[in-house]
Specification:
Low-confidence stretches: 1-10, 282-297
Radius of gyration: 22 Å
Distance between the termini: 51 Å
Number of domains: 2
Structural class: alpha/beta
Order of helices and strands: HEEEEHEEEEHEHEHHHHHHHHEHEH
Strand content: 15-25%
CATH superfamily of the largest domain: Alpha/Beta hydrolase fold, catalytic domain
Length: 397
């Protein structure tokens, strides 16, 4: 008698021909010894017209891969690489933050990774972010969630053992706007009967954007509640901006106060964590200063993808590791180990800020409502010291 899993796998293969290429990675440059977890990298085609390929990092659960949930992790921005989630947030790797000297940055194992209890796909999405690529010259919210949906279906074609695992879509910051849109698309596909059932259980979002006015308009009340602005200044803003959207004020005095808030107060605050030191970035052109050393010349030759090196913050800043990631990911040995296709990405950027992106639709509230009304689980967590996306705005969303 045929097993249910085999039948489901055959149905998947009939519905969706393979569009995936993948490789198992056992060693990474900068990490001492073999990786203590299963890592697979690869590409999935999601846009045939524009040759759109999404790059992913798949890490099996270190607990019970056959039973543990499957999480698809999206990184915000938009246009930021999911490597941020892997190396700076919830994954099993982290950089050793020491002053960059021209050599390859070092990685170590993080023991508090979510991969201790879950299978995780860190997905560079949409195309144009991380190592994902396409000939398309613009992306938006709608194309992003559609690409993730297509990716997931195609990925499961090649990984049928995970079809029955509990499935969660996860992400943070701006990706928090996209996550419920992906989950809703999965439900729509199931309802249309166009593909086999996926075991969607819910979604997970951290410090999430919702879109609309709630995210931006919560910043000033939050700043006041945390003592960043005075009672008098807060009252002046409330009085002059009463009933107005802070993103598009119509009153000149309101605009003046908002400019003061943005230019004076926020210029001295670490918006990502208001209790940490403000970290202005300054450029240390290490590559030029090291060019006279023979060993450094060899290192420079290997780093053939360095085009626009980012500025270095102070070493005490947590974002120092972001710059280390730039030099690591643009090293040719690293790209070879990750099986990145040659000639596809000239320069890896943690966040591709120059890529055109339109934020439509304006709000994702209806997607949240649709999922919650159907009884799907949602975990929404938020740091209480985040000024980018204040938790008070999420409470009122």
């Amino acid at each position: 008698m045929e097993s249910p899993l085999l039948i489901v796998s055959l149905i998947f293969l009939c519905f969706f021909p393979s569009a995936l290429s993948s490789s198992v990675v056992t060693h990474l440059p900068g990490f001492r010894g073999p990786l203590p977890f299963y890592l697979e990298t690869g590409y999935v085609e999601v846009d045939e017209e524009h040759g759109g390929q999404l790059f992913y990092y798949f890490i099996e659960s270190e607990n019970k891969p056959a039973e543990d949930p499957l999480l698809v992790w999206l990184t915000g921005g938009p246009m930021c690489s999911a490597f941020s989630g892997l190396a700076f947030e919830v994954g099993p790797l982290q950089f050793v933050s020491v002053e960059y000297n021209g050599s390859l940055p070092s990685l170590v194992y993080r023991p508090y990774s979510w991969t201790k209890v879950a299978n995780m796909i860190f997905l560079d999405s949409p195309s144009g972010s991380g190592f994902s690529y396409s000939t398309k010259e613009e992306e938006n919210d709608s194309s992003w969630f559609q690409q993730v949906y297509k990716f997931l279906i195609q990925w499961l074609v090649e990984h049928p053992l995970f079809i029955s695992n509990p499935l969660y879509i996860a992400g943070g910051s701006y990706a928090g706007k996209i996550v419920p849109m992906v989950a809703k698309r999965i439900l729509d596909g199931i309802g249309e009967g166009k593909e086999p059932l996926l075991n969607l259980q819910g979604y997970v979002i951290g410090n999430p954007f919702t879109g609309g006015r709630v995210d931006e308009n919560s910043k000033i009340p939050y700043a006041h509640s945390m003592g960043i602005i005075s009672d008098d200044f807060f009252e002046m803003i409330q009085k002059s901006c009463s009933g107005q959207d802070y993103r598009t004020p119509t009153d000149s005095q309101c605009q003046m106060y908002l400019n003061s808030f943005n230019n004076l107060f926020l210029s001295e605050i670490n918006e990502g964590h208001i209790l940490e030191a403000y970290c202005p970035e300054y450029r240390l052109n290490h590559l030029h200063s090291l060019a006279s050393a023979t060993s450094s010349k060899r290192i420079l030759k290997e780093n053939q993808n360095i085009l626009r090196p980012p500025p270095f913050p102070d070493l005490s800043c947590r974002c120092y590791a972001h710059t280390l990631a730039y030099y690591w990911a643009n090293n040719n040995f690293v790209r070879k180990a990750l099986n990145v296709r040659k000639g596809t990405i000239k320069e890896w950027l943690r966040c591709n800020r120059q890529f055109p992106y339109s934020k439509e639709p304006k709000s994702n509230i209806k997607y949240h409502l649709s999922l919650l009304q159907r009884g799907y689980r949602a975990l929404v967590y938020s740091g209480d010291h985040d000024l980018f996306v204040p938790f008070s705005g999420q409470n009122n969303g």
